[in-house]
Amino acid sequence: MKTKKIVTLSVALGLMLGGLTATTAVGSAAAEPKPAAPAPATPGPQHKDARTFELKNARKLGPGPTEGYTFCARDVSDGTYFRITGSSIIAGQPAVASATEANPDDNFREFMGDSHVYSENVSVLSGEIRSRIHTGWGAPIGACLHLIL
To answer: Which tens digit of pLDDT belongs to each residue from 14-40?
Structure first.
């Protein structure tokens, strides 16, 4: 009986060590280097769907303790960049953005349609603000970006 326990223990240890060796050999194999991440797209005149606006020409929102602006455009495709320029924009200043669907044929009257319009990647740089507008729609639509600075 004692011999049977020793043999069983030896086999179990052998399997465990063999498994550890096999696992280590597989895990320590030279890993292929990961490909470098693609450079982020820089919106601007070279970007096919970029829209550029000047802060001074924005439709200003009602009176309040903060400054609010609206920028509207027709034919906005999913992923279109909105780029707002202005000398009063300071890199890193707080900014809140939202987006909505708008009817360009009715003075950009905003409404809640079936598209899924939202803004993302609001970047406040020196002299400009950049944001990407998503529409969730297969065809270009009218859209507005709202900024509170």
So the answer is: 434 444 333 333 444 444 555 554 444
Threshold 0.70, pTM exceeds = no
Instruction: With beta carbons less than 8 A apart as the criterion, state whether 82 and 133 touch.
Output: yes
CATH number of 50-148: 2.60.40
Q: What share of the chain is helix, strand, coil (3-state, %, to 5)?
A: 20, 40, 40
User: Helix/strand/coil (H, E, C) string of 9-22?
Assistant: HHHHHHHHHHHHHH
pLDDT in tens, 101-128: 999 999 999 999 999 999 999 999 999 9
**What are the boundaries of each domain within the chain?**
50-148
Query: Who's near 52: CB < 8 A, 6+ residues apart?
Result: 44, 45, 83, 84, 85
